[in-house]
Known about the structure:
The active site is at residue 123. Bifunctional enzyme that catalyzes both the deamination of dCTP to dUTP and the hydrolysis of dUTP to dUMP without releasing the toxic dUTP intermediate. DCTP binds at residues 96-101, 113, 121-123, 142, 156, 159, 163. By secondary structure, the chain is mainly β. It has a single domain (5-44, 60-151), classed as Deoxyuridine triphosphatase (dUTPase) (Deoxyuridine 5'-Triphosphate Nucleotidohydrolase, Chain A), CATH 2.70.40. The chain is built from three helices and eleven strands; from the N terminus they run H-E-E-E-E-E-E-E-H-E-E-E-E-H. It has helices spanning 5-13, 97-100, 171-178; strands at 18-20, 27-28, 31-43, 59-63, 66-69, 74-84, 89-95, 104-107, 117-126, 132-135, 139-147. The protein is globular, with a radius of gyration of 17 Å. The N and C termini lie far apart (38 Å).
Amino acid sequence: MILSDRTIRQLLRQKTLGIQPLDDGQIQPASVDIRLGDTYSIAEETSAGIVYLDSEVRYRTIRAQSYLLLPGQFVLATTMEYFRLPNDLTAFVEGRSSIGRLGLFIQNAGWVDPGFEGEITLELYNASRSAIELRAGRRVGQLVFARMDAPAQNPYRGKYQGQRGATGSRIAQDLELQK
């Protein structure tokens, strides 16, 4: 079940759900607006020009109040907000329609798992033919919360727990665990 603004406010008051910083105006009828933080990460090019999924990827991370996203460019960004989800809530990121209509695609790579705590890394892609200026504090998407039928038996405690800033892929850690 998708949570309403009323339920989101109640969970925030009870401190069951944590979102910091949060302005009341960010709470929408069935979501919470998320804002861009000031950290961006760009995957460094490899000498072979190929990203291998079984190798560690290196990133160049910058902090800036604005970032110019060129046409066809991909960048990781972070939310301004730090989230703390209880073990019976999950969430997913949706882009804002007004931003998508400009050619800026915003998502994250899956669900925000129950038990997750941290800033959310966003994957941004400029599909337009013009550069797009990104600014810290700009509302770019929304987080939609859904209540699970029961608390997770194994809430999230993974490699991105507690992340701050635009966090690059840690796929190489998965490979180490498989060995």
